[in-house]
Write a structure and sequence with these properties.
332 residues; alpha+beta; five-stranded mixed beta sheet; 14 helices; elongated
Length: 332
Protein backbone atom coordinates (compact mmCIF):
# COMPACT_ATOMS: atom_id res chain seq x y z
CA UNK A 1 0.00 0.00 0.00
CA UNK A 2 1.36 3.46 -0.94
CA UNK A 3 2.09 5.62 2.07
CA UNK A 4 0.89 9.17 2.23
CA UNK A 5 2.95 11.93 0.71
CA UNK A 6 4.89 14.20 3.07
CA UNK A 7 6.06 17.56 1.78
CA UNK A 8 7.86 19.50 4.47
CA UNK A 9 9.44 22.92 4.31
CA UNK A 10 9.80 25.92 6.66
CA UNK A 11 6.65 28.03 6.87
CA UNK A 12 4.37 25.34 5.48
CA UNK A 13 0.68 25.35 6.46
CA UNK A 14 -0.81 21.90 7.03
CA UNK A 15 -4.32 20.57 7.52
CA UNK A 16 -3.68 17.64 9.86
CA UNK A 17 -6.14 14.87 10.72
CA UNK A 18 -5.90 11.85 13.03
CA UNK A 19 -8.64 9.26 13.45
CA UNK A 20 -9.25 6.66 16.15
CA UNK A 21 -8.25 3.07 15.46
CA UNK A 22 -11.18 1.14 13.92
CA UNK A 23 -12.95 4.54 13.95
CA UNK A 24 -13.49 4.23 17.69
CA UNK A 25 -13.77 7.28 19.92
CA UNK A 26 -10.57 8.98 21.00
CA UNK A 27 -12.45 11.19 23.47
CA UNK A 28 -14.77 9.81 26.13
CA UNK A 29 -15.28 12.86 28.29
CA UNK A 30 -14.53 16.55 28.60
CA UNK A 31 -11.22 15.96 30.37
CA UNK A 32 -9.91 13.95 27.41
CA UNK A 33 -10.49 16.86 25.05
CA UNK A 34 -8.90 19.29 27.49
CA UNK A 35 -5.89 17.00 27.78
CA UNK A 36 -5.33 16.90 24.01
CA UNK A 37 -5.57 20.68 23.77
CA UNK A 38 -3.14 20.98 26.67
CA UNK A 39 -0.65 18.74 24.86
CA UNK A 40 -0.98 20.77 21.68
CA UNK A 41 -0.32 23.92 23.72
CA UNK A 42 2.78 22.30 25.23
CA UNK A 43 3.96 21.27 21.77
CA UNK A 44 3.54 24.88 20.56
CA UNK A 45 5.90 26.13 23.26
CA UNK A 46 8.37 23.32 22.65
CA UNK A 47 8.49 23.34 18.85
CA UNK A 48 7.40 26.84 17.87
CA UNK A 49 4.47 26.45 15.48
CA UNK A 50 1.11 28.20 15.09
CA UNK A 51 -2.41 26.78 15.35
CA UNK A 52 -4.70 28.50 12.86
CA UNK A 53 -7.80 26.39 13.58
CA UNK A 54 -8.99 23.12 15.13
CA UNK A 55 -11.95 20.93 15.94
CA UNK A 56 -12.20 17.89 18.20
CA UNK A 57 -14.83 15.39 17.09
CA UNK A 58 -15.64 12.09 18.81
CA UNK A 59 -13.35 9.73 16.91
CA UNK A 60 -11.01 12.16 15.14
CA UNK A 61 -9.64 15.68 15.14
CA UNK A 62 -8.60 18.37 12.65
CA UNK A 63 -5.88 20.99 13.12
CA UNK A 64 -4.51 23.66 10.81
CA UNK A 65 -0.86 24.23 11.70
CA UNK A 66 1.77 26.61 10.38
CA UNK A 67 5.20 25.09 11.00
CA UNK A 68 8.10 27.54 11.01
CA UNK A 69 10.50 24.60 10.67
CA UNK A 70 10.29 21.21 8.92
CA UNK A 71 9.27 19.56 12.19
CA UNK A 72 5.66 18.46 11.58
CA UNK A 73 6.49 14.73 12.15
CA UNK A 74 8.12 15.57 15.50
CA UNK A 75 5.14 17.71 16.51
CA UNK A 76 2.66 14.97 15.61
CA UNK A 77 4.68 12.31 17.40
CA UNK A 78 4.71 14.43 20.55
CA UNK A 79 0.94 15.01 20.42
CA UNK A 80 -0.33 11.60 19.32
CA UNK A 81 2.13 9.50 21.32
CA UNK A 82 1.64 11.56 24.46
CA UNK A 83 -2.14 11.53 24.19
CA UNK A 84 -2.16 7.80 23.36
CA UNK A 85 -0.21 7.04 26.53
CA UNK A 86 -2.57 9.22 28.60
CA UNK A 87 -5.69 7.59 27.10
CA UNK A 88 -4.45 4.01 27.53
CA UNK A 89 -3.45 4.58 31.14
CA UNK A 90 -6.72 6.29 32.01
CA UNK A 91 -8.94 3.62 30.45
CA UNK A 92 -6.62 0.64 31.12
CA UNK A 93 -6.40 -0.31 27.47
CA UNK A 94 -3.57 -1.51 25.21
CA UNK A 95 -2.62 -1.03 21.59
CA UNK A 96 -2.68 1.86 19.16
CA UNK A 97 -5.21 4.59 19.82
CA UNK A 98 -4.95 6.18 16.38
CA UNK A 99 -5.65 4.54 13.05
CA UNK A 100 -2.32 4.43 11.22
CA UNK A 101 -0.41 7.60 10.50
CA UNK A 102 -1.82 11.08 10.64
CA UNK A 103 -2.90 12.68 7.37
CA UNK A 104 -1.55 16.05 6.31
CA UNK A 105 -2.48 18.32 3.42
CA UNK A 106 -0.28 21.24 2.42
CA UNK A 107 -2.30 24.46 2.02
CA UNK A 108 -1.30 27.62 0.16
CA UNK A 109 -1.33 30.94 2.02
CA UNK A 110 -4.36 33.00 1.05
CA UNK A 111 -8.03 32.31 0.34
CA UNK A 112 -7.53 28.54 0.44
CA UNK A 113 -6.76 28.81 4.16
CA UNK A 114 -10.18 30.40 4.67
CA UNK A 115 -11.84 27.49 2.91
CA UNK A 116 -9.96 24.90 4.99
CA UNK A 117 -10.91 26.70 8.21
CA UNK A 118 -14.53 26.59 7.09
CA UNK A 119 -14.20 22.88 6.30
CA UNK A 120 -12.75 22.23 9.77
CA UNK A 121 -15.32 24.25 11.70
CA UNK A 122 -18.28 22.78 9.83
CA UNK A 123 -17.46 19.17 10.72
CA UNK A 124 -20.20 18.83 13.39
CA UNK A 125 -22.81 20.21 10.97
CA UNK A 126 -21.78 17.76 8.25
CA UNK A 127 -21.96 14.96 10.81
CA UNK A 128 -25.53 15.95 11.72
CA UNK A 129 -24.57 16.64 15.32
CA UNK A 130 -25.67 20.29 15.39
CA UNK A 131 -27.50 22.92 13.35
CA UNK A 132 -25.43 25.94 14.40
CA UNK A 133 -21.72 26.28 15.10
CA UNK A 134 -22.44 27.92 18.45
CA UNK A 135 -23.98 24.63 19.58
CA UNK A 136 -20.58 22.89 19.49
CA UNK A 137 -18.05 23.49 22.24
CA UNK A 138 -14.79 21.99 20.98
CA UNK A 139 -13.54 24.10 18.11
CA UNK A 140 -11.64 27.31 17.47
CA UNK A 141 -14.80 28.91 16.09
CA UNK A 142 -15.31 30.56 19.49
CA UNK A 143 -12.01 32.37 19.14
CA UNK A 144 -12.87 33.43 15.61
CA UNK A 145 -16.21 34.97 16.56
CA UNK A 146 -14.67 36.79 19.53
CA UNK A 147 -16.57 34.94 22.27
CA UNK A 148 -13.30 33.62 23.69
CA UNK A 149 -10.09 35.59 23.83
CA UNK A 150 -7.88 32.82 25.16
CA UNK A 151 -7.15 29.50 23.51
CA UNK A 152 -4.50 27.66 21.54
CA UNK A 153 -5.69 29.00 18.17
CA UNK A 154 -4.46 32.24 16.59
CA UNK A 155 -7.38 33.31 14.38
CA UNK A 156 -5.87 36.71 13.54
CA UNK A 157 -3.66 34.99 10.92
CA UNK A 158 -6.77 33.91 9.00
CA UNK A 159 -9.16 36.76 9.81
CA UNK A 160 -6.76 39.15 8.09
CA UNK A 161 -7.93 37.68 4.77
CA UNK A 162 -11.45 38.90 5.50
CA UNK A 163 -10.48 42.39 6.62
CA UNK A 164 -7.64 44.23 8.37
CA UNK A 165 -10.19 45.64 10.82
CA UNK A 166 -11.04 43.00 13.43
CA UNK A 167 -14.76 43.73 13.86
CA UNK A 168 -15.39 43.73 10.12
CA UNK A 169 -13.27 40.59 9.70
CA UNK A 170 -15.38 38.72 12.27
CA UNK A 171 -18.61 39.80 10.58
CA UNK A 172 -17.35 38.64 7.18
CA UNK A 173 -16.07 35.38 8.70
CA UNK A 174 -19.48 34.60 10.22
CA UNK A 175 -21.21 35.36 6.91
CA UNK A 176 -18.70 33.09 5.16
CA UNK A 177 -19.40 30.28 7.62
CA UNK A 178 -23.18 30.75 7.30
CA UNK A 179 -22.90 30.47 3.54
CA UNK A 180 -20.95 27.25 3.97
CA UNK A 181 -23.56 25.86 6.38
CA UNK A 182 -26.32 26.44 3.82
CA UNK A 183 -24.29 24.83 1.07
CA UNK A 184 -23.59 21.83 3.24
CA UNK A 185 -27.26 21.34 4.09
CA UNK A 186 -27.99 21.32 0.37
CA UNK A 187 -25.67 18.38 0.01
CA UNK A 188 -22.59 20.07 -1.42
CA UNK A 189 -19.17 19.09 -0.19
CA UNK A 190 -17.46 21.86 1.76
CA UNK A 191 -13.88 22.55 0.83
CA UNK A 192 -11.26 20.59 -1.07
CA UNK A 193 -10.45 17.26 0.53
CA UNK A 194 -8.56 14.09 -0.28
CA UNK A 195 -5.65 15.93 -1.95
CA UNK A 196 -2.11 16.37 -0.71
CA UNK A 197 -1.77 19.99 -1.85
CA UNK A 198 -4.44 22.71 -1.80
CA UNK A 199 -3.78 25.93 -3.67
CA UNK A 200 -3.49 27.62 -7.03
CA UNK A 201 -2.10 25.80 -10.07
CA UNK A 202 1.12 27.81 -9.76
CA UNK A 203 1.48 26.88 -6.09
CA UNK A 204 0.88 23.18 -6.77
CA UNK A 205 3.42 23.24 -9.61
CA UNK A 206 5.93 25.03 -7.45
CA UNK A 207 5.60 22.55 -4.59
CA UNK A 208 5.86 19.55 -6.93
CA UNK A 209 9.08 20.96 -8.34
CA UNK A 210 10.48 21.43 -4.84
CA UNK A 211 10.33 17.67 -4.37
CA UNK A 212 13.49 16.27 -5.87
CA UNK A 213 12.04 13.09 -7.39
CA UNK A 214 8.82 14.90 -8.41
CA UNK A 215 6.74 11.78 -7.71
CA UNK A 216 3.64 12.43 -5.64
CA UNK A 217 2.58 8.78 -5.42
CA UNK A 218 5.34 7.78 -3.00
CA UNK A 219 6.49 8.73 0.46
CA UNK A 220 8.34 12.02 0.54
CA UNK A 221 10.67 12.09 3.51
CA UNK A 222 11.76 15.18 5.36
CA UNK A 223 14.27 17.02 3.15
CA UNK A 224 16.59 19.54 4.73
CA UNK A 225 17.39 21.28 1.46
CA UNK A 226 14.53 21.54 -1.00
CA UNK A 227 15.06 23.16 -4.37
CA UNK A 228 13.71 26.69 -4.39
CA UNK A 229 11.55 27.36 -7.45
CA UNK A 230 10.80 30.85 -8.72
CA UNK A 231 7.95 31.93 -10.97
CA UNK A 232 8.60 32.75 -14.62
CA UNK A 233 7.39 36.31 -14.00
CA UNK A 234 9.99 36.84 -11.25
CA UNK A 235 12.81 35.56 -13.48
CA UNK A 236 11.66 37.55 -16.52
CA UNK A 237 11.34 40.77 -14.51
CA UNK A 238 14.82 40.43 -13.02
CA UNK A 239 16.42 39.51 -16.36
CA UNK A 240 14.75 42.39 -18.21
CA UNK A 241 15.88 44.79 -15.49
CA UNK A 242 19.47 43.57 -15.73
CA UNK A 243 19.68 44.07 -19.49
CA UNK A 244 17.64 47.29 -19.35
CA UNK A 245 15.00 46.19 -21.85
CA UNK A 246 11.25 45.70 -21.55
CA UNK A 247 9.88 42.33 -20.55
CA UNK A 248 8.04 42.10 -23.87
CA UNK A 249 11.27 42.72 -25.83
CA UNK A 250 13.10 40.14 -23.74
CA UNK A 251 10.51 37.53 -24.66
CA UNK A 252 10.00 38.40 -28.34
CA UNK A 253 13.24 39.82 -29.78
CA UNK A 254 15.86 37.51 -31.27
CA UNK A 255 19.57 37.34 -31.98
CA UNK A 256 22.06 40.10 -31.17
CA UNK A 257 19.19 42.45 -30.34
CA UNK A 258 18.43 40.32 -27.31
CA UNK A 259 21.60 39.24 -25.46
CA UNK A 260 19.65 38.25 -22.37
CA UNK A 261 17.37 35.68 -23.96
CA UNK A 262 19.77 32.74 -23.66
CA UNK A 263 20.42 33.60 -20.01
CA UNK A 264 16.66 33.81 -19.45
CA UNK A 265 16.22 30.35 -21.00
CA UNK A 266 18.92 28.95 -18.72
CA UNK A 267 17.37 30.45 -15.58
CA UNK A 268 13.82 29.39 -16.47
CA UNK A 269 15.09 25.81 -16.66
CA UNK A 270 17.38 25.94 -13.62
CA UNK A 271 15.34 27.98 -11.16
CA UNK A 272 11.88 28.09 -12.77
CA UNK A 273 11.57 24.33 -13.07
CA UNK A 274 10.25 24.66 -16.63
CA UNK A 275 10.82 22.00 -19.28
CA UNK A 276 11.97 22.72 -22.83
CA UNK A 277 8.46 22.72 -24.28
CA UNK A 278 7.21 25.12 -21.60
CA UNK A 279 10.08 27.53 -22.19
CA UNK A 280 9.57 27.42 -25.96
CA UNK A 281 5.86 28.15 -25.55
CA UNK A 282 6.61 31.09 -23.27
CA UNK A 283 9.25 32.60 -25.56
CA UNK A 284 7.49 33.18 -28.87
CA UNK A 285 9.13 31.86 -32.04
CA UNK A 286 11.38 29.21 -30.46
CA UNK A 287 11.18 25.46 -31.00
CA UNK A 288 11.59 23.14 -28.02
CA UNK A 289 14.43 21.26 -29.76
CA UNK A 290 16.59 24.37 -29.61
CA UNK A 291 16.22 24.95 -25.88
CA UNK A 292 18.50 22.12 -24.70
CA UNK A 293 21.57 23.24 -26.69
CA UNK A 294 21.19 26.81 -25.40
CA UNK A 295 21.10 25.62 -21.79
CA UNK A 296 24.12 23.37 -22.34
CA UNK A 297 26.09 26.23 -23.91
CA UNK A 298 25.39 28.60 -21.02
CA UNK A 299 26.36 25.83 -18.58
CA UNK A 300 29.75 25.50 -20.30
CA UNK A 301 30.29 29.26 -20.26
CA UNK A 302 29.57 29.37 -16.53
CA UNK A 303 31.99 26.49 -15.89
CA UNK A 304 34.64 28.32 -17.93
CA UNK A 305 34.17 31.48 -15.87
CA UNK A 306 32.95 33.60 -18.76
CA UNK A 307 30.61 36.60 -18.48
CA UNK A 308 27.58 34.30 -18.33
CA UNK A 309 28.67 33.29 -14.82
CA UNK A 310 28.45 36.86 -13.55
CA UNK A 311 25.21 37.56 -15.41
CA UNK A 312 23.48 34.48 -14.02
CA UNK A 313 24.70 35.24 -10.50
CA UNK A 314 23.54 38.88 -10.50
CA UNK A 315 20.18 38.18 -12.16
CA UNK A 316 19.39 35.29 -9.81
CA UNK A 317 20.25 37.48 -6.83
CA UNK A 318 17.74 40.02 -8.15
CA UNK A 319 14.80 37.62 -8.35
CA UNK A 320 15.67 36.13 -4.98
CA UNK A 321 15.09 39.64 -3.59
CA UNK A 322 11.83 39.97 -5.56
CA UNK A 323 10.62 36.67 -4.15
CA UNK A 324 11.60 37.57 -0.59
CA UNK A 325 9.64 40.84 -0.78
CA UNK A 326 6.58 38.95 -1.99
CA UNK A 327 6.93 36.37 0.80
CA UNK A 328 7.20 39.15 3.40
CA UNK A 329 3.68 40.22 2.45
CA UNK A 330 2.23 36.77 3.22
CA UNK A 331 4.61 35.82 6.04
CA UNK A 332 2.16 36.80 8.75
Amino acid sequence: MVRQLRILFPGGVYHVTSRGNERKNIFRDEMDRKMLLKMVGEAKKKYGFKVFAFILMSNHYHFLFKCEKTNLPVIMQYINTGYGIYFNRKYKRFGHLFQGRYKSILVEHGPDIMEVVRYIHLNPIRAGMIDKLTEYEWSSHWQYNGEREKGIAEPEHVLIYFSEERKEAVEKYEAYMAEGSRRDKDGDEIGPYGRYIIGSDDFVRKIKLMVKNRKLSVEITNRKDLKKVYTASEIIKATAGYYKITENDLITKKGRWNPGKRILIYLLARDGGMNNSGIAALLNGLHHSGIGPIIAKVDKEIAAGKSAKREVKEISEAYVVLNQKKEEIINY
